[in-house]
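User: I want to check something. If I give you two sequences, will you return the structure for each one separately, not as a complex?

Assistant: Yes, each is folded on its own. Here is the first sequence with its structure:
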Amino acid sequence: MNKRDELMVDYVNDLRNKCSVDPDLKLLKRVAVGCGPAIYTKNSSMITGVRASELNTIRNRFLIKKLGLSKNDKLDEGIDTVMKQYGESNRYKFRVVVYYLLTKHFKKELVYG
């Protein structure tokens, strides 16, 4: 089992146990691949969802640049919804899981083929 496959087990567990979501494994893998090498470094693979710089990265680099959303698409509301779904008591959240949930929230699965 390679490192990404090991991480996928953690992502699936978080989605099922913390978010009450039965994930689409193909989409989840595509989101993980899309995050590139960032998933292998603890600092870049996790987010807290409370720092302004993290929220700006999610908004600008993922929602706008990657998913093709506009600022008029209620981005902050979507981020807030996903953070609550993941659980505010979960201080550190996997970036891949957050991006997966945002992709599903905004119905942008086609971005990943």
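And separately, the second sequence with its own structure:
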Amino acid sequence: MTERSSARSRFANTSAMAAVILGLAGCSGDTPAGGNETASGLEEAVEAANVRLVGHHDLQGREALVVTTRSDEANGNWVYVGHHQSYYDGEQRFNPITERMEWNGTSILDISDPAEPRLVWHIPNDVDANSRGVSVVYDYPFDGSGRDYLIRNSEAGDDLKFQVFDITSRDADPSEIALVSEITGTPPDSCGPGCGGAFIQRAHKGWWSEDTGYFYAAAGEPGFGGAIVQIWDLRDPEEPVFVGRAWGPGQKDGEEGFEGQYAHHPIVDEANDRIYAGFREAGHTASWDISDPADPRLVWMVDTSPPGRGPHTVSPIVYDAVPNFSGDALPRTYALVVDEAGGRDIAPCSSGVRPKSYMFDITHEDRPFPVSTWQVPVGGFCEKGGRFGPHQSAETVNGRINRFEDRIAWIAYFNAGVRVIDLSDPYKLREIGYYIPEPNENVHPIVEGQPTVIQIDDVDIDHRGLAYATDRTGGGLFVLEYTGPMPAAR
């Protein structure tokens, strides 16, 4: 029995098929810095099928976005949450650990007991900034320190950067967490006169590999329209070195074909020398060959609009068996592409075309083609308020690229909660579970005057197969378990 399947047995719940009411008792725990509330103490009324609530943390009511899990025997079990800037009130929030008001930043939680996540530390921003992205590396070998590092983005107006922190002390003395370095732009004139320089538009999301020491970032810079993918050498975290960049046709100044796209959320498959990224707004999805990181080569690019609004997450999946394929037609490689639903000022379903998820066959990389789509039926979600549609699929498992070996995709779906999709047949995606929290006392509208609704916008998976989902409107961190039948392996 695998570690993940044994965890499913330990946390199994035999009565998960139907709408249920689940509750968590209030609890508290100690941190090295003093007392800290570890759970909201609220009863979380939900609509759910084949998914149960294992644990919850209120995250001090902070708007949350990217969640990253990471566990190993030497370093313990942790979740890192990147927070959005304060959407509604533009105010700092009280941190009972430090007894100070703090701008939203990055939260670090111990999940040794997933039923009672323990907030150990919050790394605040100095201003009201968006630090949605977070990536971590453990026992870092390249600088000879064996230390643990975290990198996050910071977007505050024109102040755009990535920040590296030493988090080795997070359990023993989190107050010793320290800023190591900042990346604020690419070398000036590094791609021609006037090309390169301080970040513009975005410093959005990154992926730090502890196998190579490279950091792959989605950020904007002079000389390009929209954000592109930049590659940095962080083998010495104190001295980041720029390596190369990847972009789509039309993005570089002077190239034809720019449609307002920007690379949004790079997924890096170093084992196969590939980067995958979706391009928001223009609807493109693409892959690059990074066998030479200094000179990435575009392998394929597909424009999904119409009808796609703009992909957010693109994940490769290899199948050894596929219905109606045999012999030398196998194995086959597919890409799960997840659109992002409209922004906070866009009414749900205001467009006749709604965001969705796609499966592309990319076995022959020079001829990618779509084979299926999937989306949540409208139901009452259009009238519910907030954003309705997908945002992201869980692209990592315990900090590593998700290979979807269990053929399950967890998708964050804003006011439709978290959806669980059976990928066993890439031509027939089907839903096998969902979980929709009710707003708790911390949830607030992201635009004044709009309804108060949950907005689940990110989900990740730990080494036990448990999913961790965050809410953009202050509802906290939800620890979830799929309890239904497992898809057939392919």
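Because they were folded independently, the notes below concern the second chain alone. The longest helix spans residues 3-10. The chain has one domain: 3-482.
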